[in-house]
Amino acid sequence: MIFGKSLAIFVLLGFLLGFSQSLRFDLQSGHTKCIAEDMKANAMTVGKYHVVNPNEGTPLPDTHKVTVRVTSAFGNNYHHADHVESGQFAFTAAEQGDYMACFWAAEHQPPVTVTIDFDWKTGVAAKDWGEVAKKGSIDVMELELKKLMDTVNSIHEEMFYLRDREEEMQALNRTTNSRMFWLSLLSLLVCLSVAGLQVWHLKTFFERKKLL
User: Fold this and answer.
1) For FRET with 158, which of 7, 37, 113, 202 sits at 20 to 30 Å CA-CA?
2) Name one GO cellular component term (predicted).
């Protein structure tokens, strides 16, 4: 029975702790590629990146080094590295919104393709659980329960965040619908006014010509 509960906890953690982006992508020289992550205020995030060496066992060519910048939705700079082959960043988001990690490869002739491995974790997934276990001297089961508790709290906060976003969107929809109503009414009044002026103009024209 205990084994069954333990297995259920591990399966649930494996499903819930997937709040991370781990990807490999190609970047052409002279181009920029950006990856966005929607983050809440006070959310913790960590990221690691490195350029894949096209020739294993030899130094990475200068043509394959990249410039990396991480910025917030308001343009605040959280990480910047120039002409590097690898790096990492970690910070706590000060503001809510889309955070952008942008990679740029300098232009070369002939053009080259740079392959980059990028791992970006936020929230519970960004926490160093090994360090937590080391500091607290706790066993594996207790550590997994702590992970589960943090994950549940994170999901709870995310639900409130999504509810607030939904209320904002509903308020925006109501405002937009109200503005569209008044705009439609104004357009109708303008059309009726123009039609009335045209009728009045035609009537006065025909009266002057004594056609009426």
Assistant:
1) 7
2) membrane
